[in-house]
Structures are given as structure tokens and as C-alpha cells.
Design brief:
317 residues, UDP-galactose 4-epimerase, domain 1, 2 domains, three-stranded mixed beta sheet, 17% strand, globular
Amino acid sequence: MRVLVTGADGFVGSWLVPHLKDSGHTVVAAVRSQEASQETLHRRERLSAAERLTSLELSSDESVAALMEEEFDAVVHLAAIASVSEAARDTVRAWEVNTLGTVRLAEHLSRRSRGGSKPILLFVSTAEVYGGGSQTPRRETDPVDPVSSYAASKLAAEIAVMEVRRRTGLPTIVARSFGHTGPGQTSSFVVPAFAKRLLLAKRIGTPVVEVGNLEPVREFLHVADVVEAYRLLLERGEPGETYNVASGTGVSLHDVFMKLADAAGHRAVPETDSSLMRPVDVAYLVGDSEKIREAVGWTSKIPLEQTLAEVIDAEKN
């Protein structure tokens, strides 16, 4: 397939592009045209596997329309305001990008066809749409109850792309991804943030590391497993369906912190800092993986300890 990946120079995109190429697909990598940070430029080095890089601004109808003039067999839509904290700093911007930008992309994509059929749209959403609820692994049929502007804007985009599918026939798949990490993730996310603070504490010899709430239970998939799930959903997923990308195994943030401390070789003491606390925290967010396992044969493979060790090594370098 010829696949367009939006947000290709983000954390997940920089892993997905080479994975798709290695799996025999041709990839066009869409990135924002604005001045890039050093971190983003470093991730773009991983995009050499792409056929080419191209510019995409989701807030610009002209930009989206121009890119949709090309022929693609599939689109993996990753581009987004991609974290709860970032979305909270500018809620309106989060809705403009995550919801309206996604609607704009889906509408233009629905007007395209190749070989008599429309391209597949894989919209990458988030497990955060489930919000609170019971402390059992979430199934795709469970109620949704987002508690952040990030999750709400992603849920609205899910609703929008499925409406476009029903109205236009655009083959659309939604992936609700549970927590994932790995080398290259920014320190605005919890695992690399812990790793960075632990390594600094080790370097300066302090026994204490400041943290937020360590009680929530989350999944922490390796990003390499996650991009494999996206590829398999593109190749074998059923249009019109929503799939959890999950392992079904949860771990408390306290245990993650201590495992990272062991990997860093610095058994620091976590100390709560109120400034690092979320206004609303979901106590338990673990996914049931039965649907994706039965549909495309995907299961997570990389152990948590290996994932965390790789993050520590990446932060050292």
C-alpha cells in the first residue's frame, strides 16, 4: 500500500514510518512546516525510510486539500495535540487540531478514490476517552466519559470520522491506544519524565525525586508493539470498527517509578509535588485486548522491564 502518515515526526510517527517501510509499504510522511525543535529534527532523521516528506497544516483547508490531491491507499492519522497537559494549556487549540483538523482531513479524503475504492483511514484515538469507570479492563463497548480536553477532543473526532464513514463510505478504523512509551518520547510524558529526574538525582547525588500522583494504574506498551498494531489494523482491520490497542496488564505509577529507579541504578525516594498533579486523574486505565487479538492476531510482546530500560538508556544519551 501507499500510506500517508500524518504527524510523522512525532514520537509514534517516527517509529511507524520505518516499520511500514520494512513491512513492504510505501510511505509519505506529513509534517508541520513550522520551525522544528532539535528534538523534532532528531526524530525526522528516522523518516529517511519515507518516499518523501511533505508539509501538512491541519488548520488550513488549502494545505489539507493540496495533499489530498495525491493518491493514497491508506492514511494513518497521528497528527494531534498529543498529551493531556499540552491540551490543557490551550483547550481551544486542542479542539481545533484534534477535532476540526481531523474532520477536515476525513472530508477531503472521502472524496478520493484509487482503483475504484476509497482509501482506508486509520484514526488514532486514545484510551483516555473511557475516563473513570470501573477498575476492570475497558472493552470497546464500555461507556465513554472523558475527563480532559484532550480526551474529549479525541472522542469528538471519533464521532466525526465515523459519521463521515456512514455518509460517504470512507473505510474508517479507530484505534484507542492505551499508554505507551519508548526511546524518543518527550519528557512531557510520565515515563521519560521519571527517567530524566532519576538520572539527574543520581548525577547530583540527591536521594529524593519529585513526582505527582503515583497511585493510578496504567498500561505501558512499547511503541514498537503499538506501531505493529497500527500496521495490522491497516492490513486486516474491519472498517467501521473501534479497537483497543492494549495488553490488558496494568501497573501502578509507583511501581513504574521504582522499576525505573532500579534501571537507573539510583533507588531514590519519590516525594509528592502538588504542582505535578493533574486536576482530574483516572484511577485505573487498562484495556481488554480480546477484540484486536481475534481480529488481526496482535498481542504485545516487549516486556515492561525492557521498555523501561530502553527509556533510561535513551535519556542517558
